[in-house]
């Protein structure tokens, strides 16, 4: 496995940014806004153009406060545009994590498998994609994770996809409530 620290400062190309951390229910919300970026970034999302970075856009990470070592779980990041409309979600499947006591940033033991989706009306995820199954297989073949861990990652990802389709994915509900509370 690889340790993955949630730190968007370099990845977004932000020239000016703010970030705040707030505990909401069972999540640490890492709320990052890139006020000014070097240049907007657009990528291909399975045949659809997706702007991933622009001036004034936010990324909110719902990181579980309890993510015991060896227990398969997930951490959600939601991308919002300048006016607060959700654009994309990204979910890391992990085998535990925590909060770095010095930097205060969330981290996970990454199980390579990820889920991404674009948003439709009413915060409903659409165009769900399971990503990086090839990385998971390579990690297993290379001995970085076990067959049991790979199977657990696939099983957990399937349950997350099911919850997203049913509108029952708790971290997304928590992020949505967090965003709406700030508008009030």
Automatic annotation (TrEMBL):
Q: Which stretches make up the DUF402 domain?
A: 77-169
Report the InterPro entries cross-referenced here.
Answer: DUF402 (IPR007295), FomD-like_sf (IPR035930)
Q: Which Pfam families match?
A: DUF402
Which PANTHER family does the annotation name?
DUF402 DOMAIN-CONTAINING PROTEIN (PTHR41271:SF1)
Q: What is this protein called?
A: DUF402 domain-containing protein
